[in-house]
Write a structure and sequence with these properties.
- The complex is a heterodimer of chains A (about 240) and B (about 270).
- By secondary structure, chain A is mainly alpha-helical.
- Chain A has seven helices and no strands.
- The termini of chain A are far apart.
- Chain B is about 35% helix and about 25% strand.
- In chain B, the strands form two sheets. A six-stranded mixed beta sheet of chain B has the order 6-7-8-3-9-10, with helices on both faces. In chain B, strands 2-1-4-5 form a four-stranded antiparallel beta sheet, with helices on one face.
- Classes of the chains: A mainly alpha (about 240), B alpha/beta (about 270).
């Protein structure tokens, strides 16, 4: 895209993009570490994640301030306006992703040593899927790639499907032996966090579509999270 | 944004579905001597709505605006081909009385230009020369009604017989609007009506435009993108004598289809 006549305007928008890229990178790292911490029960790493979440909060605030100031100064139109609005929305999604990563990391402390291997692999798989989606959507944002964003948008149902099966599995464990309940509850929340991260990732994908086309996606997103309707006494 | 729809694919603006067409231009070309100022322009302008013409200086927007009440006739060497229809009548037909036409299509200019006469006489002038008033009382009522419609009456009611040029810039512009609407036009053309005014006077005029659009077909040429976005329902973007894009204002300013429109409204032209 050609430059603005006023160079400082370009700088305003570029610095928004830079801050957002920084934020995205940090969130990816946080999620990666949170999953590793949980599956390896690495409390030191978990604490690191918890501590660093503040950085994401600060970045979000900075992006918001910069965006508001740019709107006030430049009265952005068309693509510029969308660029700024999307930056605000995406930063808030990333901030939420950071919170969910932090919450996942926190649960490391509560999980006992005896984590059944099968359970941790399921969660790790979900984690790497969420991570891949986050990475793909942030790349799509940086490249302004609508097709890539739409791929992420559609693949959220895979994450939902995996979440359903983990949900079922954890329920089975809990029914088998009530002593598993505490552990499984934490794992369930962990899985739920990852599923929520997937939702924020699709939000970002929707915003990329809006950014590029100026229109919101009209079709409904395929959703497969059916856990709200699951009843263990009937289903298992 | 580099992906743009191919030129020529433009949907019909939503505002055109809600309002009847008042003015329609077909294949209009305007020349100043050798210079081709407007190139094969066709557009439909809705009634009871504000249409904004935007574009860089020299793009032809004012030229086209002036063709709607044949103000270009006064410019030597200016020539027009094609049709400009007001309702169903081509205003360039041989049997059109230009003076009559201009009473149907009023105009407000960039710099307020009241006559060096009293406020009352400024507004009374049009109805008088067009013989619209039956008697003195009738004329007075017309003047008061026009001043009220222009949102100026309360400010000037005690000094109607003082000179119009003694008013502030914003008041003078509203006086010119009152003068334009005194002859009961159907269309009001505004050529950058706020460019000489301060923000408060500008806001008053914009408020007035918003009220007037209930009853008139208004076309405004403006260099202020924000103003076009605020006051209009239809926006047309001109560039180098071409009508590049026309659409609902809210779409033009959030997601224009043509790259030239995008570049212009986001401040990237040059």
């Amino acid at each position: 895209m050609t430059d603005h006549i006023v160079k400082a305007y370009d700088q305003d928008i570029t610095s928004l993009k830079t801050m957002l890229a920084q934020m995205g990178g940090l969130a990816e790292e946080q999620l990666d570490n949170a999953i590793t911490a949980l599956s390896k029960r690495d409390v030191v790493l978990a604490d690191q994640v918890i501590l660093r979440d503040e950085k994401l909060d600060i970045l979000e605030r900075e992006i918001e301030e910069k965006a508001i100031l740019t709107i006030a100064k430049r009265q952005p139109m068309a693509m510029d306006l969308r660029e700024i609005m999307v930056a605000i929305r995406v930063s808030s999604d990333i901030e939420r992703i950071g919170d969910l990563a932090k919450n996942t990391a926190k649960r490391t402390h509560a999980i006992s040593e005896a984590l059944p291997r099968r359970l941790s692999t399921g969660l790790a798989r979900m984690g790497s899927m969420a991570q891949a989606q986050l990475k793909d959507v942030l790349d799509a944002y940086a490249r302004r790639d609508d097709a890539a964003a739409m791929t992420v948008w559609r693949s959220d149902e895979d994450l939902d499907a995996l979440y359903n099966s983990i949900f079922r599995e954890l329920l089975t464990y809990m029914m088998e032996d009530p002593r598993n309940i505490s552990l499984c509850t934490h794992l369930l929340f962990g899985a739920k966090n990852l599923e929520r991260i997937g939702d924020h990732t699709t939000n970002i994908a929707e915003n990329i579509h809006y950014l590029i086309h100026g229109k919101t996606i009209s079709e409904g997103r395929p959703k497969k999270d059916v856990t709200a309707m699951m009843n263990p006494s009937k289903e298992l | 944004m580099d992906q743009i729809s191919p030129a020529g694919i433009q949907s019909i603006p939503r505002i055109m579905a809600k309002r009847p067409t008042r003015i329609s231009a077909r294949k209009v070309n305007i020349f100043y001597g050798e210079k081709h100022a407007i190139n094969d322009l066709s557009i439909e302008i809705p009634d009871r709505a504000v249409s904004a013409f935007i574009g860089p200086s020299g793009c032809g927007k004012s030229t086209f605006l002036r063709s709607v009440n044949r103000m270009n006739d006064t410019i030597a060497g200016c020539r027009l081909t094609g049709e400009v229809r007001l309702d169903d009548k081509n205003i360039y037909d041989a049997d059109v009385d230009v003076v009559q036409l201009r009473s149907h299509v009023g105009m407000v200019f960039q710099k307020p230009n009241p006559f060096p006469k009293s406020i009352f006489e400024n507004v009374a002038y049009g109805p008088r020369i067009h013989g619209l008033a039956k008697n003195k009382t009738d004329l007075e009522e017309m003047v008061v009604a026009s001043l009220k419609k222009a949102g100026l009456f309360d400010e000037v009611k005690d000094r109607l017989h003082q000179s119009g040029t003694g008013l502030s810039g914003g008041q003078q512009q509203r006086l010119c609007i009152a003068r334009a609407i005194a002859v009961n036009p159907e269309v009001i053309l505004m050529d950058e009506p706020c460019s000489a005014l301060d923000p408060i006077a500008t806001a008053r005029i914009e408020e007035l435009i918003d009220e007037l659009r209930q009853n008139y077909c208004i076309i405004i040429v403006t260099h202020s993108m924000q103003q076009a976005a605020r006051v209009s329902q239809l926006t047309a973007f001109f560039h180098l004598g071409n009508l590049v894009e026309v659409g609902d204002t809210d779409e033009i300013f959030t997601s224009p289809q043509d790259k030239r429109t995008q570049d212009y409204i986001t401040g990237r032209f040059g």
